[in-house]
Design a protein that fits this description.
Length: 235
């Protein structure tokens, strides 16, 4: 498997595009439930709000490229958030898993199967790039490089949303996965995701390596969010 180097702390099932289809589907659907219940969608919505509040946008119709989109639940949830602000958001999704692409298409979203190392979009070809719970899969150096690449893709801005690393968050996702009867692999990988992820200061440092200076906000559900404009507007 080629691509940016993964985090050295461990490997999640979805890190491998060859993950069996039934396991990928089960974990992706579980992640969608966790996003809805524990702040993943809300964190991305907060980031979108920050982008749209930072200044005028060039059009009332904006494309949003969700990289590592999973089941597409976060991108879909942002459509009504944008609509409430008078913006028609058109999501495009990219994921390395064909099961993820199928789930996105089932949700009515355009979907492409591609590695992050070969995203089939040119620089400045989309308005907003969303990376939700994605960067923690990679080494810190690779995460910085990816953040810089996302900034070059986006005409308007970028949203990065991640779990906030803490022992409380790790224990919480373990307990929640038991209460919700999530797949055992989801439970294991959820804890690993938190361990691989960032504090607010660490995410700021990773972005700074890419030359990106932006606030990082702590959000409910043990989330950290960064959102910055790439078109010269500043919030």
């Amino acid at each position: 498997m080629t691509g940016p180097p993964l985090s050295p702390l461990g490997v999640e099932a979805l890190d491998d595009p060859r993950c069996p289809d039934d396991l990928a589907r089960a974990t992706l659907l579980d992640i969608g439930r966790v996003n809805r219940l524990f702040g993943g969608r809300a964190a991305a919505a907060f980031g979108l709000g920050r982008l749209l509040e930072a200044g005028p946008v060039r059009s009332a119709r904006l494309t949003l490229l969700d990289i590592g989109a999973g089941a597409g639940d976060v991108a879909a949830a942002l459509v009504p958030v944008a609509a409430a602000r008078g913006v028609r958001l058109v999501p495009l999704t990219v994921d390395a898993h064909r099961v993820a692409a199928a789930l996105c298409r089932d949700a009515g979203l355009a979907a492409v199967v591609a590695s992050v190392a070969a995203v089939p979009f040119r620089e400045r070809s989309v308005d907003i790039v969303l990376a939700s719970q994605f960067l923690h899969h990679f080494s810190r150096d690779a995460a910085a490089a990816l953040a810089g690449a996302f900034a070059r893709l986006a005409r308007v801005g970028v949203i990065v949303s991640e779990p906030r690393r803490s022992t409380v968050a790790a224990a919480g996702i373990w307990a929640a996965s038991l209460a919700l009867a999530l797949h055992s692999v989801t439970r294991r990988d959820g804890v690993l995701s938190v361990r691989r992820s960032f504090t607010a200061a660490e995410l700021g440092q990773v972005l700074a390596r890419a030359g990106i200076r932006t606030p990082v906000w702590r959000r409910p559900g043990f989330r950290v969010v960064a959102a910055w404009r790439t078109d010269g507007a500043h919030g």
